[in-house]
Amino acid sequence: MINHRIAQILKTGQPEENLTVKGWVRTKRELKGFAFLELNDGSSLANLQVVINQDLPDYEAILKQINTGGSVEVTGVLVASQGKGQRIELKADTVKVYGDADPETYPLQKKRHSFEFLRTIAHLRGRTNSFGAVFRVRNACATAIHQFFQQRGFLWVHTPIITASDCEGAGELFSVTNFNLKNVPKTENQEIDYSQDFFSKPAYLTVSGQLEAEIMAMAFTNVYTFGPTFRAENSNTSRHLAEFWMVEPEMAFCDLDGDMDLAEEFLKYIFKYVMETCPEDMEFFNDRIDKTVLETANNIINNQFERLTYTEAVKLLEKADVKFDYPVSWGADLQSEHERYLAEQLFKKPVIVTDYPAQIKAFYMRLSDDEKTVRAMDILAPKIGEIIGGSQREERLDVLEKRVLAQGMKTEDLWWYLDLRRYGTVPHAGFGLGFERLVQFMTGMGNIRDVIPFPRTPQSAEF
Amino acid sequence: MINHRIAQILKTGQPEENLTVKGWVRTKRELKGFAFLELNDGSSLANLQVVINQDLPDYEAILKQINTGGSVEVTGVLVASQGKGQRIELKADTVKVYGDADPETYPLQKKRHSFEFLRTIAHLRGRTNSFGAVFRVRNACATAIHQFFQQRGFLWVHTPIITASDCEGAGELFSVTNFNLKNVPKTENQEIDYSQDFFSKPAYLTVSGQLEAEIMAMAFTNVYTFGPTFRAENSNTSRHLAEFWMVEPEMAFCDLDGDMDLAEEFLKYIFKYVMETCPEDMEFFNDRIDKTVLETANNIINNQFERLTYTEAVKLLEKADVKFDYPVSWGADLQSEHERYLAEQLFKKPVIVTDYPAQIKAFYMRLSDDEKTVRAMDILAPKIGEIIGGSQREERLDVLEKRVLAQGMKTEDLWWYLDLRRYGTVPHAGFGLGFERLVQFMTGMGNIRDVIPFPRTPQSAEF
């Protein structure tokens, strides 16, 4: 059942080996007396070159059936390649054509296509060099994430996608309902009659699994989520998706220092893993997509991240010999230009900024003794900007209740979250990583829609 | 940052080792001159016994603060245990109390609680023996699934959660919208004006990633999904969830035999992995939850699965010396009682039934030459019933188009799915596994709501 995969053949195949390969034809070149096929099965960027000699029975008929995009099975023997560009090639003894691809209509002909066009044929774009590389690297990133946490005894926890709590109060939530939208039931007072909906109350798609991950950390110490999250934000940018995957570790008995240590180790691990397991794809990105991809990865792997407080960062930005579009002043959030100045110009390596003003951060972040800042941290990387955001959580019931109320939320709605502080509360911390942002930065792809198989964005839910 | 975890200490800790542990107190026993704490940090079913001697400064005050559910940090030295039930215990030199838990209100006192009650406090139930074991085994299952596929060169692909296609036509879909439900915009004809919704068309939560996984298999050969799926089915049973995780591998250049081979290898791998990595938890389930848990697991691991066609199965059922509630006749779907008879009574091991009547199976399954059956397979396991369903997919464009139309669907809506048969089509196959069903069967838990951290069911989307 397990076929010979082309990646393996190219790596370890030896002359005189007999084998069968199956894949899709990238190109066909007919010469006098023989023909070359470039065959790809998605296991690697490089194709396997197949040589078909005119001695093959039905040579003409078979070649006629084979076009770019067609699928074939070739049995033959490996031989050392005469041509340049490959170590070995496959001399065909038999060729079976599974499916053809009409050259008049098959959209992926040899010429280069724009990423915009390829998005309209997302069901075929995985067959191109760029998207083959993207989705192999995406898989490697995902695997690295699981390995990293599992090796360290973290449990993967599945936090709910459908949620009745709108805790972050963002108003950027998708509603989930099984109402007939043409005729939403109303109560006598003309309010929506949620008692007739599936969950008997308003329900939404989650924007984060953090609060539920905190629940699990209060029983299992170290956990992480890795699942889809949603924003109904009408942002048609190259960095926003309505549906994206997030990674959110949460650690009990951990403070902000431990959180930063883990986040730094985590980023280094993933970049290193991908560089080691997908070197050919990473070279491809560096050559064809963004000349700084390898430099950025090595910068993350090889440098100790700089750590400084928000207050220190503001001082450095105020002193900077650079004209920013947005003014810098204590209390205002850092803009992308500020973050990039710190990471790219000043420190030339990843920077962790900590202890942000409380009023610009979420209610669950731990208030410091100065009562002005919270134990938050953002990791800023050169060429990338913010890649991770995290915090130590507020574990003191009285302080948390005050912050909940101050933000106009109701403590009743968060009864279970507050219970965690009522029963066996402990210092704990965690962070969040947007998975597609990571893959985007790792590959240098300019648009986030090109690092997820089927992007969901305003007015687009195709495939 | 990485603390000593109790699982590791219990396994490899040696007398005279000095260390610090952090966890939650399961019980406290005060004796004359000293006290015992049972400490748990979620890493194992077993607790670490801590001995606190009255010589400890502030002995009385500290003990008073410590109750079941409280969180502590203990530094001390390991000593061989005098008591039975544990090899070693920790003699405390210092004890720090992080958080207490009022014995008057903390719901998890020593007495046994019903699973129904514990569902109402899902934010605390992970701290019980049963749910500790469930979520460790759930994590082990999930890890085994990724390992199995990654070792075999399958890519993990993230298929979309939000989808505009209602291909299976089930009518059990949740709608996703950012309309204000109180005032859904209408067109002049009083139809819903979807042009004003986020995706400019009706959108739903996915019921399966299979069709999109087929897209990815047509570029990468072997892929799998592992993500959440949804059913808006109003089923208040012990086997249904509105939100659950599914695993769906898809293999190009693969027929039904290859599909069955992979599925059998896959199930054996997961059960074996969990038996090896969570032996203590599995023993617990066998002792406390279901006395057949280990037997069922070993039956799956150690037997070659029986393979027979639906037609053969019907003949055997017709001959069976058993009175069924539902009659057996060729063309009707097998009922749970039939499936269990085959697996438990007749073969006493897992059974794969293949080649079901076309009219009771989905449009995408490959039609056989008899034109009456499709190349479908279901795996039935003793005590479990159906655990996997799969098929070889219809790869012939003309046959597929006929089946799409016969089921009242429109070929235009499936243009991209049909394109896969138009351009380089290949024989391919896959299967689906309901992840919570697997965990339920593995642990013997009677209700599927007790194997997912925060279950979503009719009228319930708490936490």
Structural overview:
Chains A, B: It catalyses: tRNA(Asn) + L-asparagine + ATP = L-asparaginyl-tRNA(Asn) + AMP + diphosphate + H(+). The structure is a homodimer of 463-residue chains. Chain A has 463 residues and is of the alpha+beta class. Chain A has 2 domains: 94 residues, OB fold (Dihydrolipoamide Acetyltransferase, E2P) (Beta Barrel); 287 residues, BirA Bifunctional Protein, domain 2, CATH 3.30.930. The first copy, chain A, has 13 helices and 16 strands. In chain A, the strands form 3 sheets. In chain A, strands 6-10-11-16-15-14-13-12 form an 8-stranded mixed β-sheet. In chain A, strands 1-2-3-5-4 form a 5-stranded mixed barrel. In chain A, α4 crosses α7 and α6 crosses α8. The mean pLDDT of chain A is 95. β8 of chain A pairs antiparallel with β8 of chain B, so a sheet runs across the interface.
What's the structural blueprint in terms of helices and strands?
The structure is a homodimer of 463-residue chains.
Chain A: H1 6-12, E1 18-31, E2 34-40, E3 48-53, H2 59-65, E4 71-80, E5 88-99, H3 115-120, H4 129-151, E6 155-156, E7 162-163, E8 175-177, E9 204-205, H5 210-220, E10 222-230, E11 243-252, H6 256-277, H7 279-288, H8 293-302, E12 306-309, H9 310-319, H10 336-346, E13 351-357, E14 373-381, E15 385-392, H11 397-406, H12 415-422, E16 428-434, H13 435-443
Parallel strand pairs in A: 3-5, 6-10, 12-13
Antiparallel strand pairs in A: 1-2, 1-4, 2-3, 4-5, 7-9, 10-11, 11-16, 13-14, 14-15, 15-16
